[in-house]
Amino acid sequence: MSSSTSTPAAGGSGGGGGVTRVEQGPLIIEDVPPIPESIKGRLFQYQNARSCSLLGWCPDTLMGGGMLISTRFAETSQVHHVLSPLSYRRQLTFFDEPIASARICPSPDTLNGFIYTKDIGGSEFYQAYSFDVASGAYTLLTDGASKNSAVLWNHAGTQYVMSSTRRNKRDHDIYLSRAGKDNLAQQDIILQEGGLWNPLSWSPDDQQVLVLHYKSANESYIHILDINSKKVEALPIPVVNAAAAASSQQQQERISYGAAVWDPRDGKRGVFYTSDEGGEFMTLRHLDLASHVITSISGSIPWNVEEVKTIKHRDVDSDKIIAFTANEDGVSVLYILSVDDKGAFVFNKVDGLPMGQVYNLAFNKFNKQTQIVGFVVNSSLSPGDVYSINLKTTKVTQWTQSEVGGLPPSLFVSPLLIRYKSFDGLTVPSFYYKPAASPLN
Fold first, then answer.
1. Would you list the DSSP string of 358-384?
2. Mean per-residue pLDDT for 360-389?
3. How far apart are CA 121 and CA 96, in angstroms?
4. Which of 17, 107, 287, 440 is 20 to 30 A distant from 156 in Cα terms?
């Protein structure tokens, strides 16, 4: 427990120009007036504003559908179920440690619930657990000592892959579990190349997985991993200038790859991915695996593409196939990518969203009547709430309304995006917040 003492510094007597010295544990504070309790109380309200993350959509067999979110009612974020827009948030997990991630199993025959990860005491040695909703029982699936992450179910819900350091507690290998409900903890290593590897996306036929080999913030590579042969091959991306690359004078460009998903269209063997190849921004591209032809999609957007998600049912026709976000001037913009009658890629901006950050994109693959995409919006008006958009009607629906520490939301304001030029002529975006008229101002 810290103690506080207040004494006049040498050469002073508490007045007449003397320095007031306050010692609070290891802190030594001189000539700083005490903070009023009213300010402390007001700050506490801001520190206790809640937010939530979208974990995924539930099949109708799992608690009647709806979605799973992560939010904090006590000290840590836990898994909650939301059945319908703005309905009651039912808490499912109750732990001292926060839940790091949760992945819903698509098949109730394998697991009527989800796999989540959490650590102990902030160690960051995350372990994977299965959670059965019917019984409320959870089971440890990993060894309790390694780092485990990036759990990814296949489309059928019969197998999952994950990244783990179990082999040597250093390298992040890829493990596969195909044991089914009888033994979800049985996992076999299918990739051990050394370094940091994470699974990204299952192929439409559940036979291959896109995996990311991360080396640094400026260098990473996407590979295709066959789960049966365990063969891993780099994504066949052709060199733009083969003659120059072959020259001993040409230094190979380091490329950073980010998001990657399989092309969801029937009979199309392709991959959508982001990379900074040939530029400074993460650009969305499409690679045809048969012809090795690369199509730049978001080249007209001079900003980073951040998230990319498949939004098409495998067995339902639709021209809308991908949702992606771009960080434009510090504001997230949501786009829907379609294919026109001539087979060209066309993307359109989703209007009507609050100004802020958009993330946690999640397609409701269990509702085959329409295309619904969920996401989180974090803005100056809300600390982080879940929304969804019906791609047929373009209707945006709010699913959660997070508490803001008792503060009146009517006082929150949206900022104005302004731009100014710096000394070197570079245009710099900024946000200007004009306080709302209030007796508190």
1. EEEEEE-TT-TTS-EEEEEEEESS-S-
2. 94
3. 9
4. 287
Torsion of CA 77, 83, 89, 94, to 10 degrees: -50
**DSSP codes, 52-80:** EEEEEEPPTTTTTS-EEEEEESSSSEEEE
Cβ burial, residue 41 (10 Å; 0-12/13-18/19+): exposed
**pLDDT over 80 at 379, yes or no:** yes
- Give the pair of three-digit tokens for residue 144: 């309790």
Instruction: Indicate the average pLDDT of the chain.
Output: 90
Decide: residue 233, CB within 10 A, 0-12 exposed, 13-18 middle, 19+ buried: exposed
Distances (CA, A) of 228 to 166, 249, 337: 21, 40, 32
pLDDT digits (tens, 9 = 90+) for 130-177: 999 999 999 999 999 999 999 999 999 999 999 999 999 999 999 999
Confidence (pTM): 0.88
Tokens of 169: 């507690």
User: How far is 230 from 207, CA to CA, in rounded Å?
Assistant: 11
Note the residue count of the chain.
441
Find out whether 83 and 66 touch, Cβ atoms under 8 Å: yes
Nearest alpha-carbon partner for 57 in 371, 394, 396: 371
**Cβ neighbours of residue 193 under 8 Å, at least 6 residues apart?**
173, 213, 232
Q: Is 354 within 8 Å of 304 (Cβ atoms)?
A: no
Q: CA 366 to CA 307: how far, in whole Å? A: 21
Q: Please write down the long-range contacts of 318-326, taking CB distance under 8 Å and 24 or more positions apart.
A: 318/371, 320/371, 320/391, 321/263, 321/264, 321/265, 322/261, 322/264, 322/272, 323/361, 323/363, 323/373, 324/259, 324/284, 324/298, 324/361, 325/358, 325/359, 325/361, 326/298, 326/301
Q: What is the pLDDT of residues 69-85, one digit of tens each?
A: 999 988 899 999 999 99
Tens-digit pLDDT profile for residues 196-214:
999 999 999 999 999 999 9
Residue 353's contacts (CB-CB under 8 Å, 6 or more residues apart) are: 334, 377, 387, 396
Task: Report d(CA 202, CA 37) in Å as an integer.
Answer: 54
